[in-house]
Amino acid sequence: MKLTDEEQEMLDGEQGPGVQKAIEIVVALGTIYGAEQLVPVSSVQVSGVSYKNLGEAGIEFLTEWADAGARVRVPTTLNPAGMDLLRWEEIGFPEDFARRQQEVIAAFVRMAIEPTCTCTPYLTGNLPAFGDHIAWGESSAVSYANSVIGARTNREGGPSALAAAISGRTAVFGLHLDRNRMATHRIDVACPVESVADFGALGCMVGRIVKNRVPYFVGIQSKGMEVLKALGAAMAATGAVGLYHIEDVTPEARLGDMQGDKIEAVTIESLDEGYEGLNGDDNTVDFVSVGCPHASLAEVQKVVDLIGERELTATLWVTTSRQVRAEAERLGLVARIEATGGHVVSDTCLVVAPVEHFGFKTLATNSGKGATYAPGHCGLNVRYGSLEQCIEAAVNGRWDA
Ligand code: F3S
What is the pTM for the complete model shown? Predict the structure, then answer.
């Protein structure tokens, strides 16, 4: 691999052991995947933040790296942690978990990372430009950055994203290269796809079909940030899709450009299979969570409108970024949700929080990604449907199909 003088200096340890370790990781990954060079990154999103996933070994790893003097050299944001960092006590997170989570965040802050703790960094100031090389972890954000923004990132893991932030480099392979950004599958959508839940169901179906390749959708009329983030998150959950194209919607959608000689074609006639695959059969709902990926302000507003003046029976979490929560607070939306007994939870989400601690049995959600992970990661039964159905379930404690 060809390195610049500065990259070689980093590798030789001239910028300290923290930087040396970072560029060693970047170079090792590049070597494995056949990269010929490194490229500067303009931003990084670090995943692997929740103590639930990191455990003690994770704290030790991060603390050692911070102790070695590692500091990020490009704007770097963090994925959701395992709790609301400000309101954990009020929401009922266990104290021992909270203390360990705070240690994790402290290690990241020592490395000069902003503790933003959201999976929608593109809504809160970490917004790359078209064509930028970036190094993002968090599969839903990767998908959004590649597909909707047209930036270029592989699906980074926690350590590799952090290594990119500290060295300011990533290796040029995978989705950084033009040839890997072309479509492999044409997906003709022959049924209506409108709501966030519809896009999540579609994404779960297509993720299973295309796995880690690149679908090109034809026939999708609805657009908007909320449905696009839901689609990408779902495909990344059931497959490993890091990039998709939608005809007349996403910036690199050109069906003429495809990988290989022959594109595989699939027609989706109905979303039933997607909905059925995500739905259990428990009709008593005690936990409702919306905002996966983290809710936009418009989604918070919609929750308020749907609840109206009613009180909730089930626990409701609307998960979002701290910035969106602050805007919602200014508009009186947080107070409206709290008055019904619900929570607007920032910095975390149902998948990375220790929800087992709360004793919930059955979750209702409109997130394809959340519904995919909740049984395995949180031991929950799941009901999956529209935001309207989820809010009715929060009010009545029952799922009406
Ligand atoms: Fe975000 Fe958590 Fe969903 S990280 S995409 S809200 S699983």
Answer: 0.97
